[in-house]
Amino acid sequence: MFVLNPKTLSASTFIPKYFIVPPRSSIPPQFSNFKSRTYCKSNQITERGVLFDTGDTFFRHESATGRDLGVLSAALYKQTKGQLRVLDAMCGCGVRSLRYLIQSKADFVLANDANESHRRVILDNLGQVERFEGEQRRWVVTHNEATRVLTDCYLQRDYFDYIDLDSFGSDSSFFLRATFSSLKLDGLVYVTSTDGFSSGGHRPFHSLEAFGAYVRPMPYANELGLRILIGGAVREASVLGYHVTPLFSYYSCHGPVFRVLLQLKKGKLPEKRDYGFICYCNRCGNSQAFSWGKLGRISCPCNNTIKDAASLVVSGPLWTGPLHSGNYIMEMLNLAEQWGWVGEGAGTGLEKLLKQMFEESDPRLPFGYIKLDEVASRAKTNTPSISTITSALHKEGYAASRSHIAPNAIKTDCPMAGCIRIAQELHGC
Ligand SMILES: C[S@@+](CC[C@H](N)C(=O)[O-])C[C@H]1O[C@@H](n2cnc3c(N)ncnc32)[C@H](O)[C@@H]1O
Fold first, then answer.
1. Could you read off the pLDDT of 184-229 as tens digits, one per residue?
2. In a domain, 25, yes or no
3. Which end of the chain is more exposed for a tag (fewer CB within 10 A), N or C?
4. What is the per-residue pLDDT across 10-49, written as a single tens digit (0 to 9) for each?
């Protein structure tokens, strides 16, 4: 699709064509399903002190935490790079665009939604920015199909610092190549998937199409949802000669919603072992990650071999590396503290989440999580409490943490047999 890479050509000025709105008939049929689903009738809502109207657009209160994380990361970008141009490619009522302008102090936001009927509510919401700040307009609203907007920006060498892709299902994969083409190097993409069927391994051929990963049922399905989303992005970036790494990954059961913040860099993935396959053994409950070279020769320490396909399950290729950067999560937590979003009187949700993400970023912790119900059923005991089993694991020198993805699970480098033994010892067996 893209032959020239203008990022490597000299920069030139251009006249943005954002106001050109194509007739609806120019939207390809696969994107014609733009009817807004009204989850919340026209009403005014305040999110972290920002007032906006949801109109008749698709809006979910439950996504507020995902929006908080986006706003924090965009603000950190602005603080470190000194500039911030955001493309909110599927803006709905424009709440994110508004928050990027007001809270992240974006220099410019292009708010796009293919559904033209959202125009009034988006304009009203973003119109507040000038009313309160009395400054020149820093935003533009368009109603194009997202790939067209992204491709136009790429062709005009109008690169963005931060692109928010908040699409339905597994659609985001469709936009990734055009997104990476219109993003600055070191720029950030905040991408969403709501495809819980693929991560559950219920439609491996669909996940293959959408994310390039053949996924089969495994106990840590919701982590797989994040890993196939990142893995799909790694694949798309590599086609263009780039690589991406996640700064944070966030799962919310409301939807479900999988969100990752990716940073674009030039060249190949530095750590090849971060992209590969994972294998789960139904017989012993252990998991392992492995690269292309070992595919076909995989066996489990319990002597289960790939020939016993029913009990040794392989998924991939997908992202097998870290889900978060610990340092980055700390920076987000510090900023959230400065803004009064965490700490005394701020509610515990965001603080708890960021602290759990920080714990999960311990490099000793492998991919996946172990559900304590599975430990209990293998150990034939009652389910141990998370705090008891994690402190027992720490005492034995293992790394162990909660998982923000699954409330009744732990992440640990202790093999399943060790967890079973500890659970039995805790119950005096
Ligand atoms: C999940 S909603 C966005 C919600 C919004 N970002 C928020 O946080 O409230 C997805 C939006 O994408 C729009 N949309 C769907 N497919 C699109 C496409 N191909 N191009 C542009 N917009 C699209 C829909 O009209 C819808 O408003």
1. 999 999 999 998 888 899 899 999 999 999 999 999 999 999 999 9
2. no
3. N
4. 333 333 334 333 333 444 443 444 443 434 455 899 999 9
Q: State the CATH number of the domain containing residue 173.
A: 3.40.50.150
d(CA 178, CA 151): 6
Neighbours of 38 (CB within 10 A): 13
Query: Which atom of ligand 1 is the closest one to the Cα of 90?
Result: 12
Domain limits for position 251? 35-272
Pocket of ligand 1, candidates 97, 113, 145, 190: which has the most ligand atoms within 8 Å of its Cβ, to mutate?
113
Ligand 1 atom closest to Cα of residue 92: 27
Within-domain flag for 66: yes
- The closest residue, in CA terms, to atom 27 on ligand 1 is 92
Instruction: State whether ipTM is beyond 0.95.
Output: yes
| Ligand 1 center from residue 65 Cα (angstroms) | 18
Answer whether residue 204 is part of any domain.
yes
HEC states along the chain? CCCCCHHHCCCCCCCCCCCCCCCHHHCCHHHCCCCCCCCCCCCEEEECCEEEECCCCCCCHHHHHHHHHHHHHHHHHHHHHCCCEEEECCCCCCHHHHHHHHCCCCCEEEEECCCHHHHHHHHHHHHHHHHHHCCCCCEEEECCCHHHHHHHHHHCCCCEEEEEECCCCCCHHHHHHHHHHCEEEEEEEEEEECCHHHHCCCCHHHHHHHHCCECCCCCCHHHHHHHHHHHHHHHHHHHCCEEEEEEEEEEECCCCEEEEEEEEEECCCCCHHHEEEEEEECCCCCEEEECHHHCCCCECCCCCECCCCCCEEEEEEEECCCCCCHHHHHHHHHHHHHCCCCCCCCCCHHHHHHHHHHHHCCCCCCCCCEEHHHHHHHHCCCCCCHHHHHHHHHHCCCCEEECCCCCCEEEECCCHHHHHHHHHHHCCC
Residue 84 lies in a domain: yes
Whether the CA torsion 389, 394, 398, 400 is positive or negative: it is positive
- Dist. CA 112 → ligand 1 center (Å): 8
